[in-house]
Amino acid sequence: MKRELGRRRFLAALGWGAAGLGACFLGGAGMLRSNRRLQRSLEELRSRRAVLPPVPGRLDLKGVLHVHSRLSPDSRGRPEEIVAAAQEAGLRFVMTTDHNTRRVFQEGLQGRFGDLSIFRGVEMIKDGQSLLAVDAREFIDGHRMSIEQAVREIKSQGALAFVAHPWRFRAWQADGIDGMEIYDIADAAYAQAWKAPWMGLEMLSSWDECPEEVLLGLLARPGRHLAAWDAQLRRRKLVGIAGNDAHQNVRFLGMQLDPYPLDFRFVQTHLLAVSGEDAALLDALRSGHAYACFALLGDGTGFRFLAEEEGIAGIMGDEVAYRPGLRLALQAPLPGRIDLYRDGALLRASDAAAMSYPVERPGVYRAEVSLEIDGRRYPWIVSNPIYIV
Fold first, then answer.
1. Secondary structure (3-state) at 70
2. What is the arithmetic mean of pLDDT over 10-39?
3. Crossing angle for the helix pair 196-206 and 2-47, nearest 10 degrees?
4. How many alpha carbons fall within 13 Å on the CB side of residue 367?
5. What is the pLDDT of residues 235-256, one digit of tens each?
6. How many alpha carbons lie under 13 Å from residue 373 in its C-beta half-sphere?
7. What pTM was estimated for this model as a whole?
8. Rounded distance, CA 7 to CA 285, Å?
9. Which domains are present in the chain?
10. pLDDT of residue 128
């Protein structure tokens, strides 16, 4: 009797196992079909992209920030891989931020590679809080100082100080912070760790054919980061950037899930600079003449968000004096849903490629553009604010 019961249990387990494998197979096949459909939809969407002229007197130059190489203990990425991936993605700048050691300032990647500018910097971590020192010149021993002291040291070198991983940052009282990440690829992955079983199956079924479409499964509006940004914008100017947090260090069953080329296409920061020279790029970043774009959906080049009154009164990052007749004008290369915010609250929404809004009172105005693809809405562009004072 016991033997018969054991046999039945064994056969039942085999049955459940076979059913599970069958479900995985059918589910994986369905995921591949879905990703192929998404791939076709993205191709059709990109084919409708309009080519917009740049803002007069400005170039729209795209690049990436928060990039790690083999000088960081959690990366094996080689300098030549970073340069090749950036050139493949058509980037004009890369801002590396290896984990802070003296070696970064002896061996770190920097300089001009054709039209590509690479700036050297570091990521400084203190009590779990991260600062990006962009274009730092000399080693700063951040372990021996407070966040406030570290920011002062960064600024004393003429470098820029950006908050990385803002969800765990606490020292907002520090003076001199230039900006913060309003998106970080690693933060987005951690926040959606509950998707791991489905993502694993999707990678097994679709990664070879549709890596971009698989990665889009992690793309969601970064509400937590944007709320933190809006809270800070109520009391000071703060430049918003996209953090690629590129390491090229995630492997799964022999697949490289975060190669530099894919990370550099996933999200980009655009700078509206007067030229492609290094000083002009840094000045545009410092001034907040910038927007973030999830380029896997489509190239955002040409996006504009302006204050106008008988001509251009200001661009993203600028302070503009309030006066009757002032308008905000927005245009994107693709139609989508445009959300206009004032002081962190949604002010107006429109399904279009352009919007014009008569300014009624001072405030911090910023815009977001999202795209609906195959029944799902994705964030696409997040502007820096125009400060109407």
1. coil
2. 60
3. 70
4. 31
5. 999 999 999 999 999 988 889 9
6. 27
7. 0.92
8. 69
9. 59-296 (3.20.20.140)
10. 93
